[in-house]
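Regression test case RT-17, inverse folding.

Input:
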């Protein structure tokens, strides 16, 4: 990919065609970069491209469904929003971004070969979406005292105690004591008879005012799990309940189907 010195926005959706990054040059005016379904080839690292020396004005970065990035090291004075989803093979994520306000990480580290490592320094972060591995020995989120919006947490109602998504969800719920808004997804496997009921492991939620609760019921009754969550929300002022179809990632992770369910005693907000 050549350096477009005058470009302000770049979107690439390549269907996993190979993309080589130039080792020199500056994207002097670039403020938005979106890369999807890209297979990175060559010696130049993506982190070198998007860091301040080569992208001094970059504010929004989105990288999704990519291959060939085993480490992503970003040092940026300008980035305000980063979205990372399904970076296959990623083993190291390092972000130093003092101006960052929004960070979303989904399915990047949880299937990593070996032990994934993440080090995040974003002291001004306001919004955190984290649907990924979260072992505090290797995943260090740094000082995030300003986080007000915590989202994309996924919790499977039935399964095994060592479910990595559930572990990550519980640890994040315990870490953040007060948030303004929480987005939580309760997921049901297609077949639950041979699995444990895991809602009792969820014992605490942050002090919050707005709860956005997604239910991927997959044909199962969800009243008990819903009540378990709501009884912990003593200070709740607003609730939005969405009965929704699973995303592509959720289908792959949990074998959920798009089967619907009616709940006559509660207003359901379909998610579009």
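Golden output:
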């Amino acid at each position: 990919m050549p350096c477009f010195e005058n470009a302000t926005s770049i979107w690439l959706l390549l269907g996993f065609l190979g993309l080589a990054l130039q080792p020199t040059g500056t994207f002097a005016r670039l403020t938005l970069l979106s890369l999807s379904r890209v297979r990175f080839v060559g010696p130049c690292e993506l982190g070198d491209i998007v860091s301040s020396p080569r992208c001094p004005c970059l504010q929004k970065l989105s990288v999704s469904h990519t291959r060939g990035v085993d480490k992503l090291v970003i040092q940026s004075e300008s980035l305000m929003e980063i979205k990372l989803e399904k970076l296959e093979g990623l083993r190291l994520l390092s972000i130093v971004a003092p101006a960052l306000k929004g960070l979303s990480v989904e399915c990047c580290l949880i299937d990593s070969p070996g032990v994934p490592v993440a080090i995040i320094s974003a002291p001004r972060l306001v919004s955190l979406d984290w649907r990924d591995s979260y072992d505090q020995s290797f995943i260090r989120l740094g000082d995030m005292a300003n986080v007000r919006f915590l989202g994309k947490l996924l919790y499977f109602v039935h399964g095994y105690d060592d479910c990595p998504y559930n572990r990550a969800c519980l640890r994040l719920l315990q870490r953040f004591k007060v948030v303004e808004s929480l987005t939580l997804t309760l997921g049901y496997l297609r077949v639950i008879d041979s699995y444990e009921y895991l809602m009792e492991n969820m014992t605490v939620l942050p002090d919050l005012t707005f709860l956005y609760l997604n239910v991927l019921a997959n044909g199962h009754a969800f009243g008990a799990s819903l009540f378990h969550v709501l009884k912990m929300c003593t200070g709740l002022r607003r609730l939005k309940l969405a009965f929704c179809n699973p995303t592509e990632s959720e289908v792959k992770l949990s074998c959920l189907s798009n089967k619907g369910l009616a709940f006559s005693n509660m207003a359901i907000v379909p998610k579009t």
